[in-house]
Amino acid sequence: MTKVIDVHAHILSEETMRLMCAESPGKGPRLLDRREDGAALEMMGHTRGNFPRGAWDIETRLKMMSDNGIDMQVLSVVPHTLIYGADPDLAETFALIQNEQIGAQVRTMPDKFLGLATLPMQAPLAAAKELRRAVTTLGLRGAMIGSHVDGRNLDDPKLEAVWEVADELGVLIFVHPQKTAGADRTKSYYLSNLIGNPLDTTIAAASLVFGGVFQRHPNLKVLLSHGGGFTPYQAGRFVHGWHEREEAKVHLKVSPEEDLGRFYYDTLTHSLPTLRSLVEWSGPDRVLFGTDFPFDMGEFDCADRVRELQLPSADEAKILGGVAERLLGTLKADQGEVSHYDRATA
Fold first, then answer.
1. Predicted pLDDT at 49
2. How far is residue 113 from each of residues 6, 10, 70, 130, measured CA to CA in Å?
3. Residue 7 has pLDDT above 70, yes or no
4. What does the pLDDT look like over 197-208, one tens digit per residue?
5. Closest by Cα among 308, 289, 318, 307 to 70
6. What is the mean pLDDT of residues 14-29?
7. What does residue 268 show for φ and ψ, rounded to 5 degrees?
8. Which domains does the chain have, with CATH numbers?
9. What is the DSSP string of 265-279?
């Protein structure tokens, strides 16, 4: 029977918060106004409401997993803790604490959890060092990073040290939006999330492709959150633009098809037709089940949405857990895949 693995699941345990606050009482995360279903989260002088109990309460997490038929989660930090604009030493300290805590949770329940690291990306050498430590010492399977580093896109030359280690180890890098673009125009109607999150993921993806990051690091594996944002829908425009405009060729000397075909995507699209299109476009070898646990924009029953696609059983098994097992089960994933996008545009 297929093991269902949720690759998009955030965590911030109470012990992690305690340790972070011990290091920096005024900047570490703490819970306020607790209630049965959640609390407010204060961190770095900012308070955010509607922080779900599942983020810190392991029993709530396990029950929700069971209720939705999820066998395993790949734990990553909550985006609130991506403090790329903070002092690098503080960011590094907070990253080490969170990585050690995620590693400890994985060791406590190895049948339920795998883990991804967080990195102090504003200090690329420290981030590269921490990625190596997290993977080789703590047993984490890669890292979750933000869609930009305090305004610098992911093709910034200073980030090469991180990509070099990720390429060498063959681990997964999960790109998640944070501090999204267009904030001045998305203040109403929750557009900062509804549009801002997929927009920022798309900017990150385009930066990696047109910045030549994949070309320089052929073993790099990148998972895009929220179904890849607008990336799959606009991939044809990226290709057309590369052929027509010299600006698109500054760092990318070959047409983008190959590199666009190297992304992985989670299933979080909130739409069965959109999910079907994503699977048809990218192929089932590039789509991984993900819920955005435990936040209100998540889709905790989307394993059922995958089943509703009525795919061949082998393809369904790949999406629900097979691809994740291959990517995360060992440090070196299989090589030589050809994406459906390559074939469709050849």
1. 85
2. 9, 11, 11, 20
3. yes
4. 999 999 999 999
5. 289
6. 96
7. -80, 80
8. 5-345 (3.20.20.140)
9. EES--S-HHHHHHHH
